[in-house]
Design a protein that fits this description.
This protein has about 180 residues and is α+β, with helices and mostly antiparallel strands. It has 4 helices and 4 strands. A 4-stranded antiparallel beta sheet has the order 1-4-2-3. The longest helix has about 30 residues. The protein is globular and about 45 Å long.
Length: about 180
């Protein structure tokens, strides 16, 4: 029995994440990075589905000794890009991992914001009058737009044809015969 007021609307999401417990201990960076890629795809897709950008990314490791460690970083610009989430998680993983076999890996995002909110610009990129710096900034914006379009296209294909409709080549088994 609960006498609290029933809220008609669901509460706002404060963070989105995913983790997985593996059946066999992870003992190599390469294997850990494959799992982090799968987790980043899931987290990025969920962020885009919720129309949210993450301002903070966290990586969690649980060793086979059941000791848990995590590390987080605040992003300069919020994102929902699978690639940026993955790259950040890999960097955090490298800062954390001590070589002990891993039982669980996780990626969490927080400090969520709406994409329509203003974004902090990099003052140093904007102040330069050098044409090469301006061109570099323009290329960076173009790359981000291309990555955003790619993420949306992959999301649409997976929504229409199922989660396994698009699989990254890096996640395919090395020993697979043609």
């Amino acid at each position: 029995i609960d006498s609290s007021k029933v809220e008609p609307l669901p509460s706002q999401v404060k963070g989105i994440g995913n983790s997985t417990t593996v059946s066999k201990d992870i003992e190599s960076e390469e294997d850990a990075f494959k799992i982090l890629m799968q987790l980043a795809e899931s987290v990025g897709s969920r962020l885009r589905k919720e129309n949210q950008l993450a301002g903070m990314i966290s990586c969690e490791i649980k060793y086979n000794t059941f000791q848990s460690v995590s590390h987080q970083t605040t992003l300069f610009s919020p994102t929902n890009s699978t690639t940026l989430i993955y790259e950040t998680a890999c960097r955090l993983f490298n800062e954390l991992w001590n070589g002990t076999p891993i039982r669980l890996l996780g990626i969490r995002t927080s400090k969520l914001c709406d994409p329509s909110e203003p974004v902090q610009l990099n003052l140093f990129d904007m102040m330069t009058s050098d044409d090469s710096a301006s061109k570099k900034n323009s290329e960076h914006i173009h790359r981000n737009q291309k990555q955003e379009n790619l993420d949306k296209a992959i999301d649409n294909i997976k929504n229409k044809y199922g989660e396994n409709a698009v699989i990254r080549g890096s996640l395919l088994i090395k020993d697979a015969k043609k």
